[in-house]
Design a protein that fits this description.
By secondary structure, this protein is an alpha/beta fold. It has one domain (19-349): TIM Barrel, CATH 3.20.20. It has 14 helices and eight strands. Helix 2 (10-28) crosses helix 9 (242-255) and helix 8 runs parallel beside helix 9 (242-255). The radius of gyration is 19 Å and the shape is globular. It starts with a helix and ends with a helix. 47% of the residues are buried. The mean pLDDT is 94. It binds 5'-deoxyadenosine. 5'-deoxyadenosine binds at residues 50-51, 141, 143, 184, 213, 215-216, 218, 266, 302-303. Residues 50-51, 141, 143, 184, 213, 215-216, 218, 266, 302-303 line the site of 5'-deoxyadenosine.
Length: 350
């Protein structure tokens, strides 16, 4: 794994890409599923050293979308033919268990959309209530399997016990969610060994969805201001480049053949022309077009120059469809549930 991660020979990398693309085609097919992304609040109680919407960043204007605004996004997702709505936010104390449960019920009452939550580390009570209200999936990246590095870039909430994200993922699974996770690539202090461990852990956790993207420094964060952890030597430090991201997508596909892998916005941000398509060519099978109302887009700046931060929902959809068709792939129909999840459960039931 480390050798592949360190490989820079173009011909060898083309072998890796082709292999990942073949596994993708054989295991999850040519469908590219579209998940409508709604960034419903940028309010966050946490102070992650890498993230632009961290509580300590006073230069961000904060917003929380109303119930009606979110439901309108859900209607848009249905109009666009998407099968899934992803509700993502910071750890916003105003998004209480009851508020989110109510939102889930409202969307489920009106639509057949699958609902994916990405709302951070929440307690058992909330996660249980949301599952009961009808939420289908949960995304929580573990960011890095290097515990020391994770603790450094992701300090615990003041006055609250530290939560172990790996245990948290097990909890989500036990509640019956399809579970997604992932990492950032090229965090200062992240070694090739760490990254190889991350990919091994993807497999060990039996994830249904895996999202990865290069770390992009944000100038209003401690890590982005170069005051962060020192980089390792060139022999060890993982670079936060597009090609590194693509290698990780390919190795993830080969290691976890049936998982759903998005071609992430971070990849598209590093190369606006081709990043998204390259992700799809290196093993990814999911795109998450942004449905967040345009007036909020710029405020959800987890990293700078985020791709698609000014385009409308219609433009996001049109771009995605054009890219899918251009690659000879097929826009997915229906919810696009995880094959991995289905395989797992058919074993359990037999
Ligand atoms: N660069 C790249 N990805 C980031 N994320 C947060 N901040 C950054 C950044 N500066 C990613 C994290 C998080 C996801 C929602 O966005 O992996 O889990």
């Amino acid at each position: 794994m480390v050798q592949w991660l360190q490989c820079n020979d173009e011909a060898d990398l083309e072998v890796l890409r082709k292999r990942a693309d073949a596994v993708r085609s054989a295991q999850v097919g040519d469908d590219v599923h579209l998940r409508g992304l709604v960034e419903l609040s940028n309010i966050c109680a946490r102070d992650c050293l890498y993230c632009g919407i961290r509580a300590g960043n006073a230069s961000v204007a904060r917003y929380r979308m109303s119930r009606e605004e979110v439901v309108a996004c859900a209607r848009l997702a249905v109009d666009f033919g998407f099968g899934t709505l992803v509700l993502q936010a910071g750890e916003d104390p105003g998004l209480t268990g009851a508020v989110v449960a109510d939102l889930i019920k409202a969307i489920k009452q009106e639509t057949d959309l699958a609902i994916t939550l990405s709302l951070g580390e929440r307690d058992l009570e909330d996660l249980t209530a949301w599952r009961q209200a009808g939420a289908d999936r949960y995304l929580l990246r573990f960011e890095t399997s290097n515990r020391e590095l994770f603790r450094y870039i992701h300090p615990p909430r003041v006055g609250q016990p530290e939560r172990d994200r790996i245990e948290h993922l097990g909890l989500l699974r036990s509640l019956g969610y399809e579970v997604g996770s992932g990492v950032m690539i090229g965090i200062p202090g992240q070694s090739y060994d760490d990254l190889a461990q991350d990919i091994e852990l993807f497999k060990g956790l039996g994830l249904d969805m895996i999202g990865v993207g290069p770390y992009i420094p944000h100038q209003d964060t401690p890590l982005g201001k170069s005051g962060g952890v020192p980089l390792l030597g060139v022999e060890q430090q993982v670079p936060n480049t597009l090609v590194m991201g693509l290698k990780v997508v390919a190795l993830t596909r080969i290691t976890c053949p049936q998982v759903n892998i998005p071609s992430t916005t971070a990849l598209a941000t590093l190369d606006r022309q081709t990043g998204r398509e390259q992700g799809l060519n290196w093993g990814a099978n999911i795109i998450m077009p942004n449905l967040t109302p345009v007036q909020y887009r710029r405020m959800y700046e987890i990293y700078p120059s985020k791709a698609a931060s000014t385009e409308t929902a219609e433009q996001s959809r049109d771009t995605a469809l054009r890219q899918i068709v251009g690659l000879g792939r097929v826009p997915g129909r229906g919810r696009g549930d995880s094959k991995h999840f289905q395989t797992l459960n058919s074993f359990k039931n037999n």
